[in-house]
Design brief:
There is one protein chain. This protein has 36 residues and is mostly beta strands. The protein has a domain at 1-25. It is built from no helices and two strands. The chain has strands at 2-13, 16-27. A two-stranded antiparallel ribbon has the order 1-2. Strand 1 and strand 2 form a beta hairpin. It is elongated, with a radius of gyration of 12 Å.
């Protein structure tokens, strides 16, 4: 079972989609770093 779940995340700057429809599941004991 995921401890953290993100579904269909989108981040845009003006007319530019930096991230589009990203889904992430982070389970118990896992570590995730998102750099950008």
């Amino acid at each position: 079972m995921a401890r953290l779940s993100l579904d269909n995340v989108t981040k845009s700057f003006a007319n530019f989609d930096a991230v589009k429809d990203v889904s992430i599941d982070v389970g118990d004991g896992e570590f995730l770093a998102v750099l950008g």
